[in-house]
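To whoever is covering the structure queue this week,

Two jobs came back overnight. Logging them here so there's a record in the thread.

Job A:
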Amino acid sequence: MGCRQCPRACDVDRSDVSSVCGMGSDMRIARIAPHFFEEPCISGTRGSGTVFFSGCCLKCAYCQNDSISHQNKGRVFSPADLAESLRKLTETGVHNINFVTPTHYADRIMETLRIYRPPLPIVWNTSGYESPETLKRLEGLVDIYLPDLKHFSSRISALICKAPDYFDFASKALIEMRRQTGVAQYDENGIMQKGTLVRHLILPGLTGESMKLLNWFKENMSDTPLSLMRQYTPTSGIHIQGLDRRVTDREYERVLSHMLALDLEGFTQEKESADAVYTPAFNHQDSFL
């Protein structure tokens, strides 16, 4: 049977042919290390133990991790290799194990966790573009879902991430994630132990999209924390008109005011977060344990 782990449902044998994600059957990983730039309830004081996977089933034109999501830079790991790295990562004292852009390797990650299940919360850090079948297979393995909620209209999602069906899948996926994890649970230090935390990145010129997404979120997931992000940083290769600048103060305040008017709880970002310094280093000496 071909690969159907994400909504693309390429149905190709990845041992012979790469699918839309750009990856074959081998796991390729760009970074394994503590990471301190997630939300406070994820990074805490000791960092989130992140595993950045190469490739991606979305093709977002503005991706800040372009070198790994589009150019597929990284090293090949077997499930046994990754299991050993997770042991080492756990020993650093991180608060959780954070799988970043993991969807196209769901099968291999499940195999890894059968070899070694860290005694820490498992975070599934995703674009939100997930298939219901894959999510149901993850039930009981994932403690925390950390999905994006990117686009509302099919026209915008087709233009920006080549997925006109993005919202159709993401909206159902987020509801399934919330069903699996229940209401967010935290330890005595405010570190999330179980739950779903949804992220939305405001894009320049698209505040109307953001407000529509917040309206949907209020109607369907109002008891779930929301992280409203203003860190959009245009990459040098962006070719879509309007996405070649940062979000203005006025744009951010418009969406933030709407979030507050809807009485949604969660996290916000300072203006200084829109800086390339917050993009992790990949393929450097400190990228792997």
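Job B:
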Amino acid sequence: MAVQTIAASTVVTPVGVLAPGQVSVDDGLIVDVRASRGVAPDRVLCPGFIDLQVNGHDAVHVANAEGADWERLDALLLAQGVTAWCPTLTTSPLDAYAAPLARIAAAAARQDPRRPSILGAHLEGPFLGAATGAHSAAHVRALDRDWLRGLPEIVRLMTLAPELEGVGAAIAELAAHGVVVSLGHSHASFDESIAAADAGARLVTHVFNAMSPLHHRAPGLAGAALSDPRLVPSVIADGVHIHPAVIRLVARAKGRGGWALVTDAVGWRDERTGGRVSMVDGAPQLADGTIAGSATTMDAAVGYVVRAGVGITDAVCAASETPARVLGVETERGSLVPGLRADLVALDPDTLAARTTWVAGERV
């Protein structure tokens, strides 16, 4: 196959913006990134986005997905520029995880180069604290180390509450087996949160949501997320979960590469969820008004944080390079760097909505 050159008026690289620039692709990999001359298509070219927390989209919920549902999820993700993701399962009885995890593993093993890559499942629960949010409190439980030891290989990311008894040893054991531990749904103290980071936790699930608020004398998990360089806070930037001023605070406190965007999107239209969720004021909610994930997309999240005052290079990094690094796949994907997968997205220069997505160099 001949080398393909993809040009854009703006190309976002790890070391800055090329305006205009071009990315050369050969055999599914980036082979060159450079400034270019002359007229280029008016678009913003970025690495494909990586979403660490996707419960579903539109009418498809990950926990129920089967058969053609996965193709529908593929299409919905590619349309927003997501080229890799972590299907996410929320709190359930322990014996309810095996079937959906098997379906996720089967979906990840599909031999289709045109789909977004499933990098592993994210288990958000059931080992959470009192800040359950939309999770079923009836199924939140104490740590079960034997159950954790039996997790299938498809599990790549797990959210735990740092105040749980025995959590340090569980975090260390999970990390040793390649599972990234995130901290969330918690009323943990600052010291408990730092101890969890000492044990190997590296991510904080949707910072400021489902956790104690930041207090100047009791900073808690949110304070640890902002101040400890080992912890990467994830942010839901949908205009509902977190105020634009707080997004700027996170971006400035953590710096480029220190925080990540997630959608925490849910399949809120999926009738198999039993009608528990409805759209109210821009977000899916339970009947009691509890926010239950989001209905945003990753391209919309990038656009939102840029309009909130975050630079385009930092915003794109939070949607691609940082999630790749959190999962340990930064040498494979997540940046416009020669040698990495040619997963790309072109955004509208005004709205930053996704226009075109490439997977391994193929326009999809």
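Note for Job B: The chain has ten helices and 22 strands.

Please reply-all if you pick these up so we don't duplicate work.
Q.
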